[in-house]
């Protein structure tokens, strides 16, 4: 503003007080010398102070979730999204790929004999590998794992003691199966068992607090693992 | 816990409704907060946030991958909240306890505030606080839902004008004007109390 006698409008001063003005410097300079504008500006500032943020209560998430959850249907994806969103849809393709891989594996096109050079996963499980198991019963192991994961997938609260116990037992045996799979050069199986091991470890150490454990479980993507286990078992039955 | 909003949405869309809780845990309080600013009370804000999350759930397959969930659900919630307030204003069935009628408010402010303290021998301080709250509520009730939304989000939540305009689906200039009108109205509503203020 070049003419000090030209006053700013209320709107301009509101914008100024809300820090939305493009003319901030000019207004500030004007306010230093113009009493009416300074008074109006102060009155606006006072109004804004009176209506400064009153505290917002905390919403009760637990209560709100359960209130909401009752109204949520389980969504069935429309066919056009199935292509990339639903693992059940990609099953045939992936199954073909994985089966091909496993057939190569079984028919002797093995990569290398089992030298667990990169053996961190096994070593980290230390004494758990000492638990004696029958290495040929990997099918049973996978069956049990599948049932457990399905159960876990459908549990929204704390896991019951039986499920936890089952997870613990599976974990004890799992490391041995990993080792056996590697020794046999069955790297596909070893890899799935390693993923299973990670999930089982998480379940075994699940915090006591319901919510926390459940969140960890949600983020574990057990669906993908279940899928892998089913593929492995299919293959196993064919052997 | 590294799952993203988009991954959670995918899980919900493939039939895992409990994955929706991840989104709710992350965004419910914010949605509730904005709804609280618009509606001015907790129970309405909760209803609005609930409805927004329900609506979003049913529209989840239309959620664009390039958007953020929080912006998207916030827009849904703001619309629900404003519609609720507009319906209330139309119906006139909703009379928040003792709050003045819009049109006569500015003239009657002084009287209204004097009616407030039916509560007896509380300390004067408390009385004054209650008065202040009632004055604020009464002044706020002179704003249209749009003005109230634009003002509270700009001033109390520090939303930018473009953000408000976008959420309300109005031009930026309209959002700006709504804020101006709101502040001007509120200032006039307070004028009789403040004494020597220019107005
Ligand atoms: Zn001036």
Write the layout of secondary structure elements.
The complex is a heterodimer of chains A (239) and B (199).
Chain A: H1 10-17, H2 24-33, H3 35-50, H4 61-69, H5 79-85, H6 87-106, H7 120-124, H8 138-153, H9 161-183, H10 187-204, H11 210-218, H12 222-238
Chain B: H1 5-13, H2 20-39, H3 42-58, H4 69-91, H5 105-115, H6 124-140, H7 145-156, H8 161-168, H9 172-194
Helix pairs in contact in B: 2-3, 2-4, 2-7, 3-4, 5-6, 5-9, 7-8, 7-9, 8-9
Task: Describe the structure concisely for a colleague.
With 239 residues, chain A is mostly helical. Chain A is 66% helix and 0% strand.
Portion of residues in helices of chain B? over 70%
Global outline of chain B: elongated
Distance between the termini of chain B: 55 Å
CATH fold-level assignment of the largest domain in chain B: Rna Polymerase Sigma Factor, Chain: A
How much is the radius of gyration of chain A in Å? 32 Å
**Can you tell me the overall shape of chain A?**
elongated
Tally the structural domains of chain B.
3
CATH superfamily of the largest domain in chain B: RNA polymerase sigma factor, region 2, helix turn helix motif
Number of strands of chain A: 0
Largest interface: A-B, 50 and 57 residues
Radius of gyration of chain B: 20 Å
Q: Could you give the order of the helices and strands of chain A?
A: HHHHHHHHHHHH
The DSSP helix count of chain B reads: 9
What is the overall number of helices of chain A?
12
Bound molecules: zinc ion
Major β-sheet annotation of chain A: none
Give the key terms:
heterodimer, A: 239 residues, mainly alpha, 2 domains, 12 helices, 66% helix, B: 199 residues, Rna Polymerase Sigma Factor, Chain: A, Arc Repressor Mutant, subunit A, 3 domains, 9 helices, elongated, binds zinc ion
């Amino acid at each position: 503003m070049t003419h000090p006698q030209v006053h700013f409008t209320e709107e301009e001063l509101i914008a100024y007080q809300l820090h939305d003005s493009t003319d901030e410097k000019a207004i500030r300079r004007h306010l230093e010398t113009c009493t009416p504008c300074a008074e109006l500006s102060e009155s606006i500032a006072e109004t804004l102070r009176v209506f400064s943020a009153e505290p917002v209560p905390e919403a009760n998430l637990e209560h709100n979730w359960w209130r909401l959850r009752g109204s949520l249907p389980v969504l069935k994806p429309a066919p056009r999204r199935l292509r990339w969103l639903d693992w059940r849809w990609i099953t045939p393709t992936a199954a073909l790929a994985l089966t091909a891989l496993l057939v190569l594996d079984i028919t002797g096109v093995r990569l290398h004999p089992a030298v667990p050079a990169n053996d961190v996963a096994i070593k980290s499980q230390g004494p758990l590998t000492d638990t004696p198991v029958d290495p040929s019963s990997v099918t049973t192991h996978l069956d049990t794992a599948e049932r457990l994961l399905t159960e876990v997938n459908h549990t929204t609260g704390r896991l019951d003691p039986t499920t936890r116990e089952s997870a613990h037992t599976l974990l004890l045996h799992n490391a041995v199966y990993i080792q056996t799979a590697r020794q046999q050069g069955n790297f596909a199986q070893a890899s799935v068992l390693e993923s299973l091991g990670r999930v089982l470890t998480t379940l075994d150490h699940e915090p006591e607090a319901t919510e926390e454990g459940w969140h960890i479980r949600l983020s574990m993507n057990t669906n993908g693992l279940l899928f892998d286990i089913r593929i492995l078992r299919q293959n196993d039955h064919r052997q | 816990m590294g799952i993203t909003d988009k991954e959670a949405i995918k899980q919900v869309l493939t039939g895992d409704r409990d994955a929706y809780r991840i989104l709710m845990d992350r965004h419910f309080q914010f949605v509730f907060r904005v709804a609280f600013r618009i509606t001015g009370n907790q129970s309405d804000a909760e209803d609005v946030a609930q409805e927004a999350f329900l609506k979003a759930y049913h529209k989840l397959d239309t959620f664009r991958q390039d958007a953020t969930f929080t912006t998207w659900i916030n827009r849904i919630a703001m619309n629900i909240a404003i519609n609720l307030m507009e319906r209330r204003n139309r119906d006139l069935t909703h009379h928040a306890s003792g709050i003045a009628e819009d049109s006569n408010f500015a003239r009657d402010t002084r009287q209204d505030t004097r009616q407030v303290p039916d509560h007896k021998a509380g300390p004067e301080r408390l009385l004054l606080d209650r008065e202040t709250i009632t004055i604020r509520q009464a002044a706020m009730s002179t704003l249209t839902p749009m003005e109230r939304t634009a003002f509270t989000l700009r001033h109390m939540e520090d939303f930018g004008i473009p953000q408000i305009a976008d959420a309300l689906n109005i031009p930026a200039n309209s959002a700006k004007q709504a804020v101006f009108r709101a502040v001007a109205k509120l200032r006039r509503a307070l004028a009789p109390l403040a004494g020597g203020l220019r107005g």
